[in-house]
Amino acid sequence: MDDLFALLVLVKFAMKQHETFPFWAGLDTAWESLRFRVWGRRSPVRQCMLLWILQLCVDKQLPLDRSLQAFAGDLDAPAAEQINAVARLIANGVSLPDALQQVPGTVSESSLLAIQVGSASGTLAETLREEARRLQRVAQHRGSSYVGIIAQFVALGLVAVGVLLFMGVYLVPKYKKIFADFGQPLPEITQSVWGTMHWLGSTALISMPAMLLLWWVAIAVALALDSRLTRGMRLFPALSSFPLIGKLHLRLEAAKTLRWLAIAVRRGRPLAALLETIHWHQRDPKMIGPLARAAEVMKQGGDCWDGLLAARLLNSREVALLQSAQRVGNLSWTLDEMSLRMERQVDDRCRIVFESLRPAVIGLAAIFVGVYVVSFFLPLVSLIHGMT
User: Fold this and answer.
1) Could you write out the DSSP letters of every residue in 281-319?
2) Helix, strand, or coil (residue 330)
3) Exposure check for the chain: N or C terminus, fewer CB within 10 A?
4) Do 107 and 47 contact (CB within 8 A), yes or no?
5) Between residues 142 and 61, which one has the greater pLDDT?
6) Tell me: the pLDDT tens digits for 82-125?
7) Domain residue extents for the chain
């Protein structure tokens, strides 16, 4: 399947540049249909296409600037400007990693790190191929996302904030006046709930933004769990301080590191040197410390597996498995499979946590509605009982 995508990319851009094929329109329509059906949304599709084009150009030694300009011709204005800016930098002699770094937003931080590591280690073509496959898996994961459920939570939170504001400012004072005129004392639960609502209404300029901020943090956590951490981490970088999110984030980074090590093994590159390259180009503060510990262990005579164990990127069982695979000459395949297994583990744990949060949120909403109903109807029952 990967070869089919690569072939379609190459044929499309060859025809786009020369425009000598009469069936161009039909093939272009088929291309758009194929990439939508396989990759889903346009954003990850675009990232995958860009990386496949870069991989083909590097592997086949094609001109990067001309290919990127042809690719930009099919994009909307903002994305086309980014790609054309990268093409101009490359035409002026700037390397591909530096050009992508000088035009922020062209590729993700993770993809940029992969390109920098691949360029520094001499494995750029294969690194681009593996990164494109990773983004394809991320796109497929997002195809089964919970965006609709997240939208329901957002709507529920906004409605709840609106109801609290309306009751605290308008409704509660009127109800208090009605019951005061009847000389009927309010039950304690009603006094507590109405007092809270009145306080929220009187301090709306402070309480409402605080509630919206907490709700935004909750949505960021949900987005993080829903999309392999990428969207949530961009919305709220402090999510990495959460124990669960931070641990899952490290597992994903460990999976990427193992994938790059597998490429180095296939190309005969020294693994210790590759880890030092990753440490040099790494900009994630949560990864700089562990990679520094790994480098320190290797300087003291340990191998890269001891370094990754000291950095807590791998556990003892995984290190033992990799050492056994290295002895029998099956290290590359083992690294690839372990990387995929780590990604699947993160997906499964995110799904479990998200599915556990959903009934919790629904339960909290039910409790809120129940307390609200009881606090309003209990005084009416007392009033009717007193009148009879």
Assistant:
1) H---HHHHHHHHHHHHHHHTT--HHHHHHHTTSS-HHHH
2) coil
3) C
4) yes
5) 61
6) 899 999 999 999 999 999 989 888 888 888 889 999 998 888 99
7) 2-143
